[in-house]
Amino acid sequence: MCKTCNKCNITYDDVESNFYKRPKNSDGFDGTCRKCSFEIQRKYLKNNKEKVVEYLKKNREKILEQRKKYYKNNREKALEKQRKHYENNREKVIVRVKKWRQENKDEHSLKNFMKRNGLKKELVDQNTCNVITTILKTKRVLIKKVNN
Ligand SMILES: [Zn+2]
Questions:
Q1: Which domain holds residue 45?
Q2: Any domain includes 32
Q3: Among 135, 143, 145, which Cα is nearest to 113's?
C-alpha cells in the first residue's frame, strides 16, 4: 500500500512510518504526511502563539495533572518491567555482571602490566595481549591460592 500526501503530493511506500494514524479516516491514516503535519502544527503555533499561551495558562492545572499522571503511570510501568526482567533473568544478569567484572579486571591488569613495562598498546598485537592476560590471570589464581 502506498499513499500520497495531499499537501506536498509526495507518494510514500511506507505509509505507517510517514503518516500518523487517524482511525476516523477510511484508510486509517492522516491525509497529510508526518513532515507536512509537523509543518502545519509549527505554523499554527507560530501564528496562534497568544491563543496557545492562553490555552496553556487556562488549563495549566489540568495539563500539569495529566502530565503527572502520565509520568506516574509510566514510571511504575517501567519499574515493573525492569523488576520482572530482573526476576526472569536473575541468573543471566548475575552471570553477565560477573563476566563484565572479570573482563574489565583483565583489561585493567593488562593495562597496568603494559604501563609498568613501558609497552604501548598499539605496539602489542592481540595475540600478545591474550598471552599477557592469561599469565596475569594465572598469577592472580596462584596468589589467591597462596593467600588461602
Ligand atoms: Zn506532505
A1: 1-49
A2: yes
A3: 135
Distance 52 CA to ligand 1 centre (A): 24
Cell of 135: 599469565
Rg over CA atoms, the chain: 30
Task: Give the Å distance between the CA of 18 and the centre of ligand 1.
Answer: 9
Strand partners, 33: 19
Other CB atoms within 10 A of residue 137 CB = 15
**Domain-embedded: residue 79:** no
pLDDT in tens, 66-117: 988 888 888 888 888 888 988 888 888 888 888 888 778 777 777 888 888 8
Grid-cell match 507518494, residue found:
11
- Structural domain tally of the chain? 2
Q: What are phi and psi of 91, to 5 degrees?
A: -60, -50
Residues around the ion ligand 1 (C-beta < 5 A)? 5, 7-8, 33, 36
Asked if residue 34 is part of any domain, the answer here is yes
Question: Which residues 6+ apart lie within 8 Å of 77 measured at CB?
Answer: none
